[in-house]
Amino acid sequence: MLLDPDRIAALARQHEFDCQYLERTDSTNDDAVDWFRQQGSNVVVIAETQSAGRGRRGREWVSPYARNLYCSVAIELSISERQLALLSLYTGLNLCRSLHQMGYQPVRLKWPNDLVIERRKLGGILVEVKPLAGGKRLLVIGFGINVLMSEEELADIGQPSASLAQFDASQPDRSLLLERLLDSLLPALNRYPDNQLSEIDREFALQDAYAGELVEVSLEDRLIRGVNHGINELGQLCLQTDEGMEFFPVGELSLRPSQS
Ligand code: BTN
Q: Which atom, in ligand 1's list, is nearest to the CA of 47?
């Protein structure tokens, strides 16, 4: 079954967003930017498939037709550099909370932007920032969540991956999922500029898939191994290494469990 664009559009309107539904596209993140530049309004773009879906670090985001959720929210906001650095964690925590409320209790976060379930990748968030006239910025928050992919399809992704259907006795309804996710995320984004984010490190600690574990990050030509102490108030990853506590900004880094 395809998504129900009228339901999603009605929900988006309640939170003062337009909605664009595309059966096929390259990347909903790009469509969201195009929409904003042409219409000048905040928008939610959803698609059934993407031919050039992208993840962080130039990776492809596998986007088979009518199986998963591919969604981008474009919103014009004035926010500080700290708020910008925390935006993907804020989004991830919001999505994670909604998925728990829908009964997907084992969903966790992997710093900085992955949704995981039993340590397999369930979804990801890609935040992009576009300059606008007058020094303003457009924030594009794209997320993809695997919903109906089969074991065979997941095996082709190239990293351990999961989909919600594996954790649900009945077939998940993608439109309902999207409605519930957006009903929480859109108002949270609207109020983001006023958010003090004082609780984000504590909330992340509760959802951190690798809390207290030996993990590693690769930084240029260095592999840094340490015990994961979660994030600080800037969203930086805190690792207790042989050199002491080291901090890593949200950027082009990814964490993985230590190989040794
Ligand atoms: C990651 O884990 O690396 C981020 C993945 C983000 C994928 C979503 S799908 C909707 C939106 N459009 C894109 O091209 N990417 C994001």
A: 10
∠ CA 119-74-49, nearest 5°, is 60
What's the pLDDT tens digit per position in 104-127? 999 999 999 999 999 999 999 999
Q: Nearest Cα to 185, choosing from 247, 122, 92?
A: 92
For the chain, the 3-state helix, strand and coil shares in percent, each to the nearest 5, are 35, 35, 35
Task: Give CA angle at 69 (36, 52), nearest 5°.
Answer: 65
Q: How far is ligand 1, taken at its centre, from the CA of residue 161, in Å? A: 14
End-to-end Cα, the chain, rounded Å: 44
Check if 256 is active-site. yes
Do the Cβ atoms of 49 and 144 come closer than 8 Å? no
φ, ψ (nearest 5 deg) of residue 258: -65, 135
Cα 211 to ligand 1 centroid, rounded to whole Å = 25
CA-closest residue to ligand 1 atom 11: 142
Q: Which helix (H) or strand (E) holds 44?
A: strand 43-50
pLDDT tens column, 161-182: 999 999 998 999 999 999 999 9
Choose one of 21, 54, 157 to mutate for the ligand 1 pocket test, by most ligand atoms within 8 angstroms of C-beta. 54
